[in-house]
């Protein structure tokens, strides 16, 4: 049986218009006024709201094994929370053990993700370089629809790859029709700074931002872009947090280099004063890499969204509970890295971006779904309200207010970095494949309803 959203305004990345949206068999079948609806259609009155493509969050880490523990949202709780916030697809990361083959890890992650409530896809981390890994990448791209691989310039002795391996790996990405993504922090410098700070007796969370200042990110961002440019392939910079990274991306784009930038809502509104708190639990809840920055970095990030230097707002959702963060009580380098934000990405970007007129509603759609769908090669199936697109939809009430809190959020984590912020504008309905999974505060997510989305290789 079909479902019709009636009386709203469709907002795509390129235009807005009044129309009803009819969905059946998981797909948008008609968009227009005075639609001829089949008998038995469920009609939802959405007058006064915006009908937008469901959010596509291309950077999450559900049940990620990391630093001796596992991130606290699994694929069901995390994707259900995503749906409560209007997001209908995630792209998560497969993390093979260092030097281990990729394919078994990919299979394991596919199995874990079967319980997802919304659609999902995978990037894969490349943490070693060899002929056999190159062969696996070619096969995974061709047969499994993995068109992006993440490389670390950070995490020395663990995930980091040196330049001599990054360059041939980037050349290989171009050859197989894939795109590299980078975590851009200089791992040698971070390692040096961590050792120095510990020798000086710094153990508290404040050591985390001290060991990885913005220049560490700016240098690595520039280096990764230059290597990709030498390799002749486009590159995607994940979780950009500071002015130095924005400047590196902007400079490269101005020189005709194809580089895509991503940031996350936390970097736009949370600053590094959180680490000065004497309360370990509070400060540790904010430990992620790159860290939150001094406030003066926020304006360059917002400007980069307006200027389209940064084209995606993701989350890097990677929650750890307070008890897990306590592993780093006497040593800031042992605090599991990451925060849970998958549910609040749209709330924060709308409230601080659209309500302040920094962004138009169309730009909001571009940043939260359409651009990622294009960049990761699944547009217009995702990121678009139009006939033939998947019926992944968020109905957004720009007048509705809510106060964000760990007490009421759906994420399986006991802290929220946006705690106490009252946002104006939030999801009232979320549809995944035409099924209502969130309805005015009622989460109706179904375990296992999400599907794996193959992303075709890049051909030009
Ligand atoms: O601190 C972070 N960002 N944790 C998640 C893993 C990553 O590097 O994206
Ligand atoms: Zn990263
Ligand atoms: Zn991440």
Overview of the molecule:
- With 460 residues, the chain is an alpha/beta fold.
- It is globular.
- A hairpin with a 2-residue loop joins strand 20 and strand 21.
- 32% of the residues lie in helices and 23% in strands.
- Helix 3 runs parallel beside helix 4 (163-176), helix 4 packs across helix 7 and helix 7 runs parallel beside helix 8.
The major β-sheet equals: 8 strands, parallel
Query: Total strand count, please?
Result: 21
Strand numbers in spatial order across the main sheet: 8-11-12-13-14-15-16-17
Bound molecules: N-(aminocarbonyl)-beta-alanine, zinc ion
Q: How much of the residues is beta strand, in percent?
A: 15-25%
Radius of gyration equals 21 Å
Number of helices: 14
Helix content: 25-40%
Assembly classification: single chain
What is the distance, rounded to the nearest whole angstrom, between the alpha carbons of the first and last residues?
A: 40 Å
Catalogue the unreliable spans: none
Structural class, from helix and strand content? alpha/beta
What would the average pLDDT be, to the nearest integer? Answer: 98
- Characterize the overall form: globular
What key phrases describe this protein's structure?
eight-stranded parallel β-sheet, seven-stranded mixed β-sheet, 14 helices
Describe the structure concisely for a colleague.
With 460 residues, the chain is α/β, with parallel strands linked by helices.
Any chance you could write out the topology, listing elements then pairs?
Layout lengths: L2 E4 L2 E3 L4 E3 L1 E5 L2 E6 L9 E4 L4 E4 L1 E6 L4 E2 L2 E2 L4 H10 L2 E8 L7 H11 L6 E8 L4 H14 L3 E5 L10 H14 L2 E5 L3 H13 L7 H5 L2 H18 L3 E3 L5 H12 L4 E5 L1 H5 L10 H5 L13 H9 L5 E2 L8 H4 L19 H10 L6 H15 L17 E11 L18 E11 L2 E5 L2 E2 L17
Helix pairs in contact: 3-4, 4-7, 7-8
This protein binds N-(aminocarbonyl)-beta-alanine (URP) and zinc ion (ZN) (2 copies).
